[in-house]
Amino acid sequence: MMIKSTTRVARAVLCHMGPRYFSTTALHGCVASDVQAIRGVFGGTTTFFHGNLAQSSEKVLVGCMRLLAVGGARKASTLALGDKQQEEEKKVQGGETGGAAAAGGGNNNKGIVSYWGVEPAKITKEDGSEWRWNCFKPWETYKADLSIDLKKHHAPVTFLDKVAYWTVKSLRFPTDIFFQRRYGCRAMMLETVAAVPGMVGGMLLHCKSLRQFEHSGGWIKALLEEAENERMHLMTFMEVSQPRWYERALVFTVQGVFFNAYFLTYLASPKLAHRIVGYLEEEAIHSYTEFLKELDKGTIENVPAPAIAIDYWRMPPNSTLRDVVTVVRADEAHHCDVNHFASDIHYQGHELKEAPAPIGYH
Ligand SMILES: [Fe+2]
Ligand SMILES: [Fe+2]
């Protein structure tokens, strides 16, 4: 008896939850029989309790079922929509706004039904073809400035500079041992770390701006731009090198440690934090230079550039991995300048907000 009743309740719940996830059919038919089912079970099981308690439990549960029904209807059903809206949804589901499927955050053919009016506008490239990336838009793309001086180096003079310099140098040994000459994998893994400081610095400056009722001089945006740019490096290298399970585990651990260490360092001394990033970027330039040497020697295959890179850096369609590494290295040189500059501002006794931030410097 008990098993039978439980089965009826499970069926009733499925009847309500099902439409939420699988169907757009009407819900009304379920309600009356479900309430009966619940009554059946609670009529049997609640004899252990006083009558009032049983009745109120029943009311609460029926209320919950109604809420689920309404929630399900809101999320899944098209019954409440007019014919015109249903037509529009069919068009979306048919892929009218979907466009070509693309890896790494591109559109897919499955339209997502929404009546909130936030469907993205159809964006096209300069040549009129459809823009296929959701993760960045055409106005965020740029041509890398390859003329930047890659040999610039900030000589460590002060105590804090030396701390920053030797911290970065000491981090290089385990990295060299772990990756050896697997530069593709190395680049991908290091980008998972490189994208953290900009986000942490930007977040802390954002909070400071709120706390102290003051402008940031554009530095929040500049640092968040850097974080986003580093993340795009990662999204690009992901296309040519897939992380193994133990590398994913390593990223997980390193991110936990590095995020917190950098957060505390930035709180204690922003000039040290930016100097560390400046030296990290110098190391990144060195790593990418070695990567290019391996590509030139032929030990790493110079495969065609991933589509995401061609669109992000506005590269010619026949670009190769070598071209990608070259523009990424130029980006690192720009990050290097920005972070050493930020550290210098602090060294000269000023705050970042006093110097206009190099937004869009790449
Ligand atoms: Fe990077
Ligand atoms: Fe960088």
Description of the molecule:
This protein is mainly alpha-helical and 362 residues long. The protein has 3 domains: 2-80; 84-123, no CATH class; 159-354, Alternative oxidase (Ferritin, Up-down Bundle). The chain is 64% helix and 0% strand. It has helices at residues 2-21, 28-45, 51-76, 83-93, 159-179, 183-212, 219-237, 245-268, 270-297, 307-312, 321-347. Residues 17-54, 60-65, 67-82 and 89-104 have low confidence and may be disordered. The structure holds fe (ii) ion (FE2) (2 copies).
- What is the highest CATH level, the class of the largest domain? Mainly Alpha
Tally of DSSP helical segments: 11
Task: Label the overall shape.
Answer: globular
Biggest beta sheet summary: none
The average pLDDT score comes to 79
Count all strands and give the number. 0
CATH architecture of the largest domain: Up-down Bundle
The CATH homologous superfamily of the largest domain is called: Alternative oxidase
Enumerate the spans where pLDDT stays under 50 for 5 or more consecutive residues.
Answer: 17-54, 60-65, 67-82, 89-104
**Helicity, as a percent range:** 55-70%
Beta-strand portion reads under 5%
Query: Between the first and last Cα atoms, what is the distance in angstroms?
Result: 72 Å
The helix/strand order is HHHHHHHHHHH
Structural class: mainly alpha
Could you write a compact summary of the structure shown?
This protein is mainly alpha-helical and 362 residues long. The chain has eleven helices and no strands. 64% of the residues lie in helices and 0% in strands.
